[in-house]
Write a structure and sequence with these properties.
- By secondary structure, this protein is of the alpha+beta class.
- It has a single domain, classed as Alpha-Beta Plaits (2-Layer Sandwich).
- Helix content is about 35%, strand content about 35%.
- The chain contains 3 helices and 4 strands; from the N terminus they run E-H-E-E-H-H-E.
- It has helices spanning about 15-30, 65-70, 75-85; strands spanning about 1-10, 35-45, 55-60, 85-95.
- It has a 4-stranded antiparallel sheet with strand order 2-3-1-4.
- It starts with a strand and ends with a strand.
Length: about 100
Amino acid sequence: MVEHVVIFKIKKNTPADKVKAMTESLNGLKNKIPELIDMHAGINFSDRNKDFGVMLVSRFRNKEDLKIYVDHPEHRKVIEEKIQPIREDLIVADLEY
């Protein structure tokens, strides 16, 4: 199994509705990419988040399925339309077990 975690720092003064649209679009990928076993995106409520306020956790069978997801047109569309316009920075972590 592979866990794929992305933590996003959102640009200051980004309206809450844009952040909500981002997380809803990410969560909607569950129904569009068969290799994606599970995904949850939402607000990082930790008081230690260092302004990385949105978190995504997703699960795949293997590294190959993660690669398919990363390159999938639906995923690329969400990045271009919903994430890039409001993202300041991000951290990505992948764990195989």
